[in-house]
TrEMBL record:
Name by which UniProt lists this protein: FMN reductase
Pfam family, one: FMN_red
Gene3D superfamilies in the record: 3.40.50.360
Stretches of the chain forming a coiled coil according to its record: none
Keyword Flavoprotein: yes
Organism: Agromyces hippuratus
One MF annotation (Gene Ontology) recorded for this entry: FMN reductase (NADPH) activity
Length: 209
């Protein structure tokens, strides 16, 4: 069976959080869509609240802790990414932005991404398209056409929430699954600090022959 890797990033601050809930629903739906295509998926889910101090220290010192470095490597080396943030003051959270700020600007190139966001009111839904989508486009990721926004009312039992949120999750996960199925990033990601030749050859002028 073909295998792909999926990284899930949640910037929720509370525990439990609706942000993590949305991330999990998108993850489960994407895995199911990939399974329908005969693709087995390895999922790694990260709560940014667990590495918040590490992110700030990295911004101040320029060096990631081993814990944060493992998260960054998993995200940049994945075949697909689900990124979900709460909306604060009409945009993504500072924690969410800071995490992607400490990642090399070329490390997410060609990475399929589904963006998601949560907030108390539907009035913040446009943040997906004026904040999150431009950021990932700038990083040269491949952003799925459908972003998923969930307001507090979407988690209730109203007729609208029963129909619309699951439909959006289904459509977005289908788009991401198609992109991930065509991706082989996890097999081809190369260490940007790796040498083309052994170090001794570089300093000694050897050809390696």
């Amino acid at each position: 069976m073909t295998t792909r890797t999926l990284a899930v990033v949640s910037a929720g601050l509370s525990q439990p959080s609706s942000t993590r809930m949305l991330a999990d629903k998108l993850s489960d739906a994407t895995v199911a869509k990939l399974a329908e295509q005969g693709i087995d998926t390895t999922v790694e889910t990260f709560e940014l609240r667990d590495v918040a101090t590490d992110i700030m220290n990295h911004m101040l010192t320029g060096f990631p802790s081993p814990k944060l470095e493992a998260v960054i490597e998993a995200v940049t080396g994945a075949d697909g990414l689900i990124a979900v943030t709460p909306i604060f003051t009409t945009s993504y959270s500072g924690l969410f932005k800071s995490f992607f700020d400490v990642i090399d600007s070329a490390a997410l190139a060609e990475l399929p991404v589904v963006i998601g966001a949560t907030a108390g009111t539907p009035r913040h839904s446009l943040a997906l398209d004026y904040a999150l989508r431009p950021m990932f486009t700038y990083l040269h990721a491949i952003v799925a056409p459908t972003g998923v926004f969930a307001a507090t009312g979407d988690w209730g039992e109203s007729a609208d929430s029963v129909k619309t949120l699951p439909a959006r999750i289904d459509r977005a996960s289908g788009e991401l699954a198609a992109l991930v199925a065509a991706s082989d990033r996890s097999a081809n990601v190369r260490d940007p600090f790796a040498l083309d030749r052994p170090f001794g050859h570089l300093i000694g002028g050897l050809t390696g022959e």
